[in-house]
Structure formats: C-alpha cells, structure tokens
C-alpha cells in the first residue's frame, strides 16, 4: 500500500518543475561503427572488445557524434538538463559541468539509478564514454517540452486541468517515492536531489541525483516522517516553479 493512502491536507510549495516532450521510442541498439577519436577507440580492436567498451557494466555507451542538443530545459548542482536527440529520437540529456569530479558525479548518478524499474522513475538509456571530452547521461522515455510546460499553462488558463494535474502529481510522485523507498538504495534526503519531468501523457517522472555532501546522504528508509517531508518538498518544488 502506498504511504500516502487516504492522505489529506497536503501542502504544496518551492522548487524545480521541468516538462519535456518528443517521440517515445525504445532504444534497441544499432550497428556498431568505429568510435569517435575523442573516445580513443582503436579501429584494429577485436569486435568483442569494442562491444564490451560500448556496453560498459551493463550501461550503453553513447558516442558524441550520435547525440545532438536542442535547448536547455533546467539545471541543478553540477549539471544542466537539455532536450536532445539520439539519431532523431527525443531524449533528455544531463550534461555535467566540466571539472575533475565530473565523471565521478556521473558514475554516482548511474549507480543510484541503475536497476530501477517503475513507470514514475526516469530510466537511463546510456552515458558518454569514460574517455569522452564531455560527460553526460541520456534518459529514455521522456517527452520534450518547455521548462514550465503544461502545468504552468493549466494553472493560468484551465482550472479543471490544473486540478486534474494536481491530483495526478500527488498520485505519481507518491507512487514513485514509495517504490524508491523499498529499493536497496539510499533515498536522497531532500527535493533538491530530484528532477521532476512531465511527459506528453501527463505522467510525472522522477530523476535521482546523488547528494553532493556525503554527510547528508543518510536517511532511514523506514522513517515515514522523512518520506513525507521529501514528498511534500517535491510537491512544493513542482508547483512554485510552474
């Protein structure tokens, strides 16, 4: 049973809300080609070795030349979010700010999100090569829209739709958080560790970011009060940025 069953008196207040739209397509893989020079792959390598490099630790490696960015849709601590395409398929791309800790930040994000499977949790499609000049994560099944998107429009122009989206937000975010707290991960302690997306079907999606300060990372997974605080903070984050 979801931790918000029969909930009432929910407060909505501050943070980030990002909407994304585009075409929903599942990535099935493509014929392998020689890697970009910045990925430092050697053309004479055995095919099996090259495939291992392109599917590192179960995570697909996306070559820079196959990725294009359209526009920025948001930002967080140490990264920016962009609407982009991988071979004409719409994706959301998290590009980490340049610096010596960029790859470490990427790897920590992948470690936190890898293996999660839920309709309200955004899934990783792949990442840049460890030897790439740029460090990024591409997310699948996200639709591209403007940053504020339909929730902001509904709040301004359509009372009925804004009420519907409000209930949908409560349902989807609670479902996503309830799933995350049952997984073998340390749930990030505050709303600043999440990005929230809305797809073209009005489905809210959570994307996780690891805490940058290790001292704030610990949270008892069974602490209902902490989960409620997180849920309430996420609702505030969505509404006040819309």
Task: Characterise the protein shown here.
- This protein is an alpha+beta fold and 242 residues long.
- 29% of the residues lie in helices and 22% in strands.
- The chain is built from five helices and ten strands.
- The strands form two sheets. A seven-stranded mixed beta sheet has the order 2-3-7-8-6-5-4. It has a three-stranded mixed beta sheet with strand order 1-9-10.
- Helix 4 (159-181) runs antiparallel to helix 5.
- It is globular and about 50 Å long.
- The two termini are 30 Å apart.
- This is Protein kinase domain-containing protein.
- Residues 35-57 are annotated as: Disordered.
Index terms:
242 residues; alpha+beta; Phosphorylase Kinase, domain 1; 2 domains; 7-stranded mixed sheet; 10 strands; 29% helix; 22% strand
CATH H level of the largest domain: which superfamily?
A: Phosphorylase Kinase, domain 1
**Number of β-strand runs:** 10
Mean pLDDT: 75
What is the number of independent domains? 2
Helix/sheet category? alpha+beta
Number of DSSP helical runs: 5
Secondary-structure element order, as H and E? EHEEEEEHEEHHEEH
Q: Hey, roughly how much beta strand do the residues contain?
A: 15-25%
Under the CATH scheme, the architecture of the largest domain is 2-Layer Sandwich
Please mark out the parts with pLDDT under 50 across 5 or more consecutive residues, or reply none: 11-44, 215-222
The helix fraction, in percent, is 25-40%
